[in-house]
């Protein structure tokens, strides 16, 4: 979705680039969930990791909008 919004110029290019910087964190969260999907305690912690990813993505999007101005 991010790529489509960037290519159609709906989202400014700095926003797209800043949001792509959060991909390693997203991959880390995804691999963590895949690795611990049968352990209830570790999956419970994944909610906090997803929240951190959400905050990081929002900050990157906001920073990209400020830079694009």
Automatic annotation (TrEMBL):
Residues spanning the membrane: 6-29, 49-68
Keyword Membrane belongs to the record: yes
GO function term, MF aspect, one: transferase activity
Presence of keyword Transmembrane helix: yes
InterPro entries for this protein: UBIAD1
Key words of the record: Membrane, Transferase, Transmembrane, Transmembrane helix
Protein name according to UniProt: 2-carboxy-1,4-naphthoquinone phytyltransferase
